[in-house]
């Protein structure tokens, strides 16, 4: 079995690929995996609960946007799995072309997203990943052509709360009306509905750059805020990043096997 890890600023998602599908998915606060031993305690317990163990794990593939946690994850793999973790980066193992000014600065999660989109949905796709940040990734004719980055809804809420004296933190959800009669509604309309219309405008203009209509895929922990209201998000794939990790890892191991064999 293959262990997959999408390490984000707020949340880390682990997935377990059994060779046929990603059958188990766990979401944890990224603050809980500060050391290799903490990570062992958590994963060992999760695996035991499903009747498995770390000894059955053949490898670990990681997409991380939190550099300070990379050492802990790699120490965990070496200490408890006796092998290094495989970290996604912009190299020869990425199965899509990279047409950006500086491929080395592309986030590992974004690389995994377009790899997963290419494998599962074809050569033309737009991936909207809604988390701490919202990333929009463009896959055009099998090439990662760039995208856009916005603040995520929770980040926007946190920024307003921490930089104002009277605005409260509110539960975020899509409002069915477009102006509010109280502060909480005002905030939700501005943050959630406003982000929705920003995405709608960006996506509608990106689509004009394609000769054929791309598949539009939503993923990430907060995509639920938009998925039922959005007429432009065609596919809801909560484990797209993990699918991209699996594809990247398999490509790495295939090349290694051909090189040594």
Automatic annotation (TrEMBL):
Annotated localization: Cytoplasm
Pathway annotation from the record: Cofactor biosynthesis; coenzyme A biosynthesis; CoA from (R)-pantothenate: step 1/5
Active site: 109
Superkingdom per UniProt: Bacteria
Family under the similarity heading: Belongs to the type III pantothenate kinase family.
Residues where ATP binds: 6-13, 132
The protein's assembly and partners: Homodimer.
GO annotations of cellular component type: cytoplasm
Keyword Nucleotide-binding (UniProt): yes
InterPro entries named in the record: ATPase_NBD, Type_III_PanK
Gene Ontology BP terms: coenzyme A biosynthetic process
Keyword RNA-binding: no
Binding site for substrate: 107-110, 183
Cofactor needs: K(+); NH4(+)
Organism whose genome encodes this protein: Mesotoga infera
Stored Gene3D superfamilies: 3.30.420.40
Catalyzed chemical reaction(s): (R)-pantothenate + ATP = (R)-4'-phosphopantothenate + ADP + H(+)
Gene Ontology MF term list: ATP binding; metal ion binding; pantothenate kinase activity
Keywords: ATP-binding, Coenzyme A biosynthesis, Cytoplasm, Kinase, Metal-binding, Nucleotide-binding, Potassium, Transferase
Protein name: Type III pantothenate kinase
HAMAP family named in the record: Pantothen_kinase_3
Function: Catalyzes the phosphorylation of pantothenate (Pan), the first step in CoA biosynthesis.
Enzyme Commission no: 2.7.1.33
Amino-acid positions noted as binding K(+) in the UniProt annotation, renumbered to this chain: 129
